[in-house]
Amino acid sequence: MRRVMHLRTVVGTGGGPEKTILTTPRYLQDYEVSLVYIRPRDDEEFNIAERAAHCGASLIDIPESGGVDPRTFFRLRKEIAKFRPDVIHAHDYKTNFLALLCRPKSARLVTTVHGYVSRGGSLELYYKVDRFSLKRMDYIIAVSDDIQEQVMQMGIDANHVSVIDNAIDIVEFSRKSSVEEAKGQLGFRRDRFLIGAVGRLAVEKGFDLLISAVERLIESGLDIELAIIGEGDQREQLESQIAAS
């Protein structure tokens, strides 16, 4: 049986990639899958272990002290030697680099590029590290066409990159009530057209543009409502924008 080891670095409750990574073992029936999560030791919001158990997935938790903890390298190398993966699948700049450092000769290296956040400051160093790592991967998966284009601009061979769009688990997220019933349960008017948006409240998500667009539609006379669900450093700014609209 083939073995696949996923590597991921998270803070708090993680993000979009978790919905894919945690459900992987359910759909890879012919593979043995190991999930390795690296996170801050003092992170009280970390709940990935519980979520993995709920999905029926086993998880190796590697807590670390600080952004650069040498023990992380030795612990990961030990876990790789124990599991003996055929494929190491990394999911962020840090695990991309760690995968290169810990790679056994028999393993293929794959990474999924989930997207890039704001630039500037110390983030520029992370991008340089990631460019170094991506050029040495056996294969790269991008979750959208624009991310694939960004990867190709790094000079990576097109034959080593493909797009696999983000997916939704239609078993877990199947409709259990009508749209009107769901809106009523959440406190929204059943007869009003509702626009919903879910995501990290960050500049690159463009929620400010969505708010402005909905405001213009309301001003034009449409009876609509907007609900945004998420957390992030743009929360206060977005709340101020909504209050002023």
What features would you describe in this structure?
It is a single chain. The model has no long low-confidence stretch (mean pLDDT 90). The chain has ten helices and nine strands. The chain has helices at residues 17-21, 24-27, 48-54, 70-83, 93-102, 123-134, 145-152, 179-185, 207-219, 235-244; strands at residues 2-9, 31-40, 59-64, 87-90, 108-113, 139-142, 161-163, 193-198, 224-229. The chain is of the alpha/beta class and 245 residues long. Helix 5 crosses helix 6.
Largest sheet: 7 strands, parallel
Structural class: alpha/beta
**Mean of the pLDDT scores?**
90
Order of helices and strands: EHHEHEHEHEHEHEHEHEH
List the helices and strands and how they pair.
Blueprint: E1 2-9, H1 17-21, H2 24-27, E2 31-40, H3 48-54, E3 59-64, H4 70-83, E4 87-90, H5 93-102, E5 108-113, H6 123-134, E6 139-142, H7 145-152, E7 161-163, H8 179-185, E8 193-198, H9 207-219, E9 224-229, H10 235-244
Parallel strand pairs: 1-2, 1-4, 2-3, 4-5, 5-6, 6-7, 8-9
Helix pairs in contact: 5-6
Quick overview of this protein structure:
This protein is 37% helix and 22% strand. It is of the alpha/beta class.
